[in-house]
Design a protein that fits this description.
The chain is 29% helix and 25% strand. The protein is built from 6 helices and 8 strands.
């Protein structure tokens, strides 16, 4: 493959912790979405804190990818992840649902009374390849076209690039 190199995938997840909330419980809720270690956690603020987790690599998204499939929300997740023009959007997750181990997407912050967990993905490749890997389109409940992990890593459809 010559000069091809793995593309950068950065994931940033954040949530506000209000004075009535337990910081440890918010961190536990966040781990329902993306697994991380204690040393990946940064906490900012005083009265209202913000917990931020940054990860690199597609591996951090594997658990979320499985959750979308298991919960049969691929089309919903896709519509919330990417615009028709290929711009990646921040995904919002219901904080209380995540605390009890459920991955539930929100259209906006108002859907989660104590705020949402926000997930921002930065990807150097074709955003549609990321979407086809993480949230492939479905028809009648079946996946239509799913990007391979190799396509995700190189940021392009391999059949288009004569690889």
């Amino acid at each position: 493959m010559g000069g091809d190199k793995e593309l950068l995938i950065e994931v940033e997840m954040s949530a506000l912790v209000y004075p009535t909330e337990d910081e440890g419980k918010v961190i536990k809720a966040m781990q329902t979405i993306i697994p991380f270690r204690e040393e990946d956690v940064e906490v900012y603020g005083d009265v209202i804190k913000e917990v931020v987790v940054r990860k690199e690599g597609y591996e951090s998204l594997i658990k979320l990818r499985s959750s979308f499939r298991n919960n049969r929300v691929l089309d919903t997740a896709r519509s919330l992840l990417i615009t028709s023009r290929g711009r990646l959007k921040t995904l919002l997750f219901h904080k209380q649902a995540a605390y009890v181990g459920k991955v539930r997407l929100c259209d906006d912050d108002a859907m989660s009374p104590l705020g949402t967990i926000r997930l921002k993905i930065r990807y150097e490749g074709d955003p549609f390849v990321l979407a086809d890997w993480l949230t492939p389109r479905t028809e009648k409940g079946r996946i239509v076209r799913e990007a391979s992990t190799q396509e995700l890593i190189y940021g392009k459809r391999l059949e288009e690039s004569n690889v």
